[in-house]
Amino acid sequence: MIRKVFIAFLLVLFLGSAICTAQPAMPVEIYINHQKVTSDVSPVVYKDRTLVPIRVISENLNASVSWNDKEKTVKVYSDERQIVLKINDTRALVGQQTVILDVPAMIINNRTMVPLRFVGEALMAEVLWNSKLRRVDVIKQVPQIVDFSYTTVNKAPAVLIKGNAPLEYSVVGHDGERVAIDIKAKLNTSKNVIDISDGLLKKVIAGELKNGSVLTRFVLEISEGVSFYILEPDQNSVAIAITNILSSVDVDEEEDTLIARLKTAYPATYNYFTLGSPGNGDYRLVVDISNARLLASSPEISENDYVKGLRMSQFAVDPYVARVVFDLKGDVNYRVFQNGSEISVIFSSREIPSRGDEGGSLKNKIIVIDPGHGGSDPGAVYSGIYEKDLNLDIAIRLKKLLEESGARVLMTRESDIYVSLYTRADIANQVGAHLFVSIHNNSSTNISTSGTMTLYYPTPEKKAFAQILQKAVVETLGLPDLGISERPNLVVTRETKMPSALVEVAFMSNSRDLALLKTDEFKQKAAEGIYRGIVKYFSAN
Questions:
Q1: pLDDT score recorded for residue 358
Q2: Do residues 421 and 534 both lie within one domain?
Q3: How does pLDDT run across 70-92, given as a tens digit for each residue?
Q4: Which member of 163, 216, 276, 315 has the greatest number of CB atoms within 10 A?
């Protein structure tokens, strides 16, 4: 009997100890964006998954909820996406995609309970579980704009806006002078204005709208005649690309020639080539204008000896290319020229003069080209690009153009070597050059500075050459005109005995100028601009 009582006593003692040590599970706490969320119905843990009242989600993650009593489905939707869950069904829809859940939505105590992790992540939030604290953290970042700049995207000048998450945008205004675009994000940058004034864009202004919503408005002050389109270069970026416009195409007959004038908003980059062959009736001349939207209508062409017809199309949109096609009547003579914002296509029964003959013969003219810096002297250096290399590239292109027009061309250097400033001037003086042109690229502590300028030694003859050269290069490149500047101490223009000038093509310190300088198209246009200045100088003299 005593033994039985003792065993019973031990059993009661053991059970009492077990009951005392078995603590009830701590309730699950929910924090959304670091704020504790309270609800009249506590979260439920089911199969290691936390279920919460649907209203907890909708009220704290800016989502809306609708209930279909007939189908027993609950719909959760926000700006990002839509989710559909059915009570006691592990299948759910996220957008148009079916997803299998670990646990379904349930009705508990007459409340719709949904799996917190699944719904939170479907609404683009991060869901974290702390088992020690039995705490769920749901963090949904407000999209932020972390940077914006003026650069080149897909070969087009563009305002590139970068976010810390995907950016939603809408175009809210465009009146020909300004473009306004709203982006659903907070502005978190050290700047809110970019001054540009490059002939395309004047200024970019960014600011948050104070209307209770998270919206940042970008206003672009654009130049007359330019257009724009929107790109998404990566998941978290939006780019507002600035495009040229092919505004009109006119065709005129003059004596024994036919001239087509292709007019753009600003000097364009273009390419031309022929397709087919003269003998089989499908001979075509194609002119492609880069980064240009087609707004022109096809002109009527009267009966002539050169062109059967003219067609135009928006050949590409990413990037934009406007195409003009001339259907030719056999093997006709043609030339394609550019003067500022106009591309001229000339057809004739006789030989058409080359560009050099067009503005005054360059035959037997001695011209010295001086690619600035070289060897141990790199010039300006930005993003691993050396000024000396850009200068030499442009100079070699210019040499080819001049020699094609009959000029005799000498280079102060034709490779990456160091040549002293006095030696450069001596080379021109010793050969009795008619002209001396030094090619450079600029830099500034103000990274928004962009444009072309020409430096000269202050004599009337050298100033006149600098003025003509500056005008031609600006018209060809379309960068801001920073004018000509006296530089009495510049050795290469002071010591040369003939008309001379130093062209600063663009600013390597400006991100857009540098992006252009990296392209063969821009360096070719720089050479063509200097070439045209030289032709016009000889024509005027």
A1: 45
A2: yes
A3: 888 988 887 667 889 999 988 98
A4: 216
In a shared domain, residues 331 and 375? no
Fill in the DSSP letter of residue 354. Answer: P
β-sheet bridge partners, residue 194: 204
Return the CA Rg of the chain: 35
* CATH number reported for the structural domain that contains residue 87 in this entry: 3.30.457.10
Q: What is the pLDDT of residue 122?
A: 80
Q: What is the CATH number of the domain that holds 340?
A: 2.60.40.3500
Task: Please give the model's pTM, rounded to 2 decimal places.
Answer: 0.48
Q: Are residues 387 and 278 in the same domain?
A: no
The 10s digit of each residue's pLDDT in 405-447 is: 888 899 999 999 999 999 999 999 988 899 999 999 999 999 9
Burial class (CB in 10 A: 0-12, 13-18, 19+), 327: middle
Residue pair 235/166 in contact (Cβ under 8 Å)? The answer is yes
Would the pLDDT of 213 be above 50?
yes
Please name the amino acid found at residue 231: L
Domain finish residue from 242, 266, 301:
242
CA–CA separation, 240 and 254 (whole Å): 42
- Specify whether 204 is located in the same domain as 275: no
| Residue 344 and residue 397 share a domain | no
Identity (one letter) of the amino acid at 146?
Answer: V
Q: Is 504 annotated in the active site?
A: yes
Domain boundary among 180, 208, 242: 242
The residue segments making up the domain with residue 203 are 144-242
In this predicted structure, what is the pLDDT of residue 8? Answer: 52
Beta carbons of 379 and 441 less than 8 angstroms apart: yes
Token digits of residue 502: 């130093």
Distance CA 413, CA 373 (A): 9
Q: What are the tokens at 91?
A: 């299948």
**Active-site residue, selected from the candidate residues 254, 504, 521, 528:** 504
Q: What is the DSSP string of 419-448?
A: --HHHHHHHHHHHT-SEEEEEEEE--SSTT
